[in-house]
């Protein structure tokens, strides 16, 4: 079999589509493995629309879900957005390529999730267009930013992440994709945006704003509190002296009803080792910082 790489394979078949950078593997009820690849239709010619991606496009729709059999490489392109005019044109041109969403096996439908790349685009735009007052919007007085975090030894921009949690005012846990926001040039958290992944509310976006008079710690403020904790600092120094490399994992900001829990894993890679080992988990509620051998121990 040639073109074994998942993304290279789908691009060979449908070069007119754009593809999410994060395909993921799922398992069917029969125990077979499949890759799910999100695909987009994009355009740079949509009227009165803000360009993004360096002006590369100003229109994007997650119109297609591609299912790839991990064993034999068979690909099925399912149209999930019948209202997208671009994908309907492609369907008329290539009628044998595309299938309707209702033809997708039910057990694979259960694994559909909201795509990260599309969510990042929406979050970036919403950080500006949440401002409804014309004067505030024109002066960008309430512009939001995606916060940074410490990963390894570097400060990087946080990426959206998937979690299962119970949203404020909801009765049960849900599978969501979320990202926090901070005010421009500030470190405190001002809001967070979530995309629902469970049916029948798949794709619904919801934003939670914090009162401006209430201080909610942002990711970098929590990272600073972790650095200032004497117990954690002592442990990190001790590991470093033994020749091992300490790797700080992604900080997760997890909403739990009316509160926020911050969780950061710590990994240790031996001097001659390649695979990091989970060594500790750090948790914080904003005021206290605790460390444990695992999440339960830290809590």
UniProtKB/TrEMBL annotation:
Record has Transmembrane as a keyword: yes
Keywords: Cell membrane, Membrane, Transmembrane, Transmembrane helix
The keyword DNA damage is annotated on this UniProt entry: no
GO cellular component, one term: extracellular region
Pfam families, alphabetized: UPF0182
Annotated protein name in UniProt: COG1615 family transporter
Natural source organism: marine sediment metagenome
